[in-house]
Amino acid sequence: MKKYVIWLLTAVMSLTFGALLYFQIMYLENMIRMRDSQFSEIVMRCLSSTSSFLEKRETLHFLQEDVAVLESSLLETETGFGGNNEFSTAILDSINGMIDRQSEELGMSLSFNPLKTPRQKSIDNIQNHYKNMQETLRGQYLYQKGLLTEVILNILRESGSRPAKERADSTVIRNYLTSELNSAGLDMPFAFALTNKRGQLIYNTQTFEKNDTKNIYSQNLFPNSGYQLVLNVEFPQKGKYIVSSVRFIIPTLIFTLILLVIFLYTIIIAFRQKKLSEIKTDFIHNMTHELKTPISTISLASQMLGDPSVRKSEASLNRLSSVIADESKRLQFQVEKVLQMSVFDNSPSSVKLKETNGNTIISNVVDTFKIKVEKFGGSITCNLKADDDAINVDTMHFTNIIHNLLDNAIKYRDEDKSPILCVTTENIGSKYYQIRIKDNGIGIKKEDLKRIFDKFYRVPTGNRHDVKGFGLGLAYVKKMVEMFKGTIEAESEPGKGSTFIINLPLAQ
Fold this sequence. Notes:
- The chain contains 14 helices and 11 strands.
- With 508 residues, it is an alpha+beta fold.
- The strands form 3 sheets. Strands 6-8-9-11-10 form a 5-stranded mixed β-sheet, with helices on one face. The chain has a 4-stranded antiparallel β-sheet with strand order 2-1-4-3, covered by helices on one side.
- Helix 2 (84-104) packs antiparallel against helix 4 (118-158), helix 8 runs antiparallel to helix 10 (314-346) and helix 12 (395-411) packs antiparallel against helix 14 (473-483).
- The protein is rod-shaped, with a radius of gyration of 56 Å.
């Protein structure tokens, strides 16, 4: 699969997952917002009902205090006028008796009042009595209305002087509010506090936290009186309640995230596999070239040895023998580089550690490299300052480590100047033996410096095509140093050369 196809699929799938996650998150936010609004509406309705209940309770309290006064006033009224039913019956009896008396005296009345008949006088008397009755009822009504007005004024006057804890009893509030919340479907703990209109605390429950304003709901109590109170109710578990009401959405969000992680992991694996495929192809090309060159040289030299004229010349025989020997060594070295990594990966136990003098091995390797460095007009110096050079290493692999680092210094030399190499050893405290191999080569870029120890990785060399290899040398060096319980690091700047620093523990 081509790289642009992978990138296209990655972009499309990323946009799809991103849109899916966005809509799920937006839906979740809207659900939480709606649940929070519903919760607040229910709570405020319950608080309003509680406020109304407390107002009625306070009114009842004052009515019960004034009921004695009211009853005594009504008693006086009933003594003067009788009850409503008795009063009406007495009036009717009086009217009937008056009509009878006036009928009996009808004749006598005519002699004294020639203008009115007895019937007309009786009607006038009845009208007068009805007027008296209406005046009596009206007076009773006005009197009772005055008493009720006095009671109401007394409630309004004395409500502000009554202690707030009595007006809004905490037990009454808790019981009534609990009942209202349970009826509305909110069976959850709450805490509350009572304050005056200026925010001064009157009392609060133990679990009330006034700093948590997000979960506090307030309701004015006794809004029609002169001394108002404020009831503040807090729900500590409000967040859990709202989340629990939308918890069915959370699994879908989690599954989407899992799918996204799996998709990203798959894409990473695809890129890694493509990169390994490219490395494998490059490795095969390099290996073929590196092995083909000495094989072809040996084949050519062996053919020349079959020529009778060549066999007659001892100088030619010696030269061809030397060529075959050198190319055989080169071929063996290339094969060993591949096998070293293979043997190390599959059988680390093949490394045999023993106490060795590091300065001695380094001095021998440097001596063998002097001819190669001088061939390019350069120089190599060895400054072995370490007094204690006893280290536990495998002699063959330790020799290969130094050889590979010096070989890279020559391989990546700057063509415009003579190579200068410096090998230094010193003791770091009483525990470590440090080796520094410095050159004045082309250097390494910062982005490549952190990958030079990766297997099969080769630093790009631009237009230079004479640098061959498999990308195994530094990976092999790092693996072996770690097997010796040491560390290796590189310092480099383009155009200024490189320095490799190895720290190995001293033999105890």
